[in-house]
Design goal:
- The protein is of the alpha/beta class.
- It is built from ten helices and five strands, in the order ααααβββαβαβαααα.
- Helix 3 (30-39) crosses helix 4.
């Protein structure tokens, strides 16, 4: 009796789990599958997941990436912590009944969290202010709001509102969407994993399914740039660290008063 491989028997435990991940998230690759298994407490080597992912046909067709021109210039107003730079923009789609969809997306550039996705048929400057106000009530005020030069974003009312709320509007150069790269990257993911997969019957259904996707994106979907953590968890850690740092600075200032305070 010759040697009989036991690989298939060892893999049998994991195949149903990987198949469920692939069916639920057909755009995911093996690293995302490994991260999801890890989240559920399954300690499995990423190389083994890669082997099974390829062997059992779960691999997706690789996307054709566009070539990018690298100028070597540093990114303008790059964040170093949460709530420093929020980026927002529009992405468009349509319903099965022909109704147009206009989605306003708001993203924290540091934590990669989707702070809001407002869905409507028409969204003007006044509604943009409402969406940003609601997001600020939950996450706090950002220092900078980054957008393109659309009329909804350069409206006088929006600029006045931003100044009154302690923020600054930073618009990108015309014809250079890569300067708003964080929200463009989110749009690519949002379209691939939600808009292109769902056929919305009407506006109401679109709002429900898109908000469900936003929740899953923030709380369950691993993000490669965050060490395969979901954005919400990374954001909570980052905000907690900022609060600890602020408390430490306050204590230092309390026990080490400035020379001007001593002289007075």
């Amino acid at each position: 009796m010759g040697y009989r491989s036991r690989v298939s028997a060892k893999d049998a435990k994991w195949i149903p789990k990987l198949q469920a991940i692939a069916e639920r998230n057909p755009t995911y690759g093996y690293r995302f599958a490994w991260a999801l298994l890890k989240e559920n407490g399954d300690t499995l080597n990423v190389k083994r997941v890669h082997r099974m992912w390829r062997r059992y046909g779960f691999s997706v067709q690789p996307r054709r990436r566009r070539r990018k021109i690298r100028t070597g210039k540093a990114r303008v107003l790059a964040p170093t912590g949460p709530n420093q730079v929020w980026a927002y923009d529009f992405v468009h789609d349509h319903c099965a009944n022909g109704q147009a969809l206009k989605c306003l997306t708001v993203v924290d550039e540091w934590t990669r969290e989707s702070l809001a996705i407002e869905v409507g048929t028409s969204i003007g400057a006044a509604r943009v202010i409402q969406v940003l106000s609601r997001a600020m009530a939950v996450y706090g005020r950002p220092q900078i709001l980054r957008s393109d030069n659309g009329p909804e974003f350069i409206a006088r009312a929006l600029r006045i509102w931003a100044l009154m709320n302690g923020g600054e509007i930073a618009t990108i150069d015309p014809g250079k969407p890569w300067q708003n790269g964080s929200v463009e990257s989110f749009h690519s993911t949002f379209r691939r994993e939600c808009l292109d997969r769902e056929l919305f019957a009407n506006l109401r259904e679109a709002r429900i399914l898109i908000e469900q996707y936003r929740w899953e994106y923030n709380t369950q979907r691993p993000h490669s740039s965050l060490g395969y953590q979901p954005p919400r968890r990374f954001g909570e850690k980052a905000r907690a660290e900022c609060r600890e740092s602020d408390r430490a600075e306050a204590l230092v200032a309390e026990f080490n008063p400035s020379p001007s305070g001593i002289l007075s």
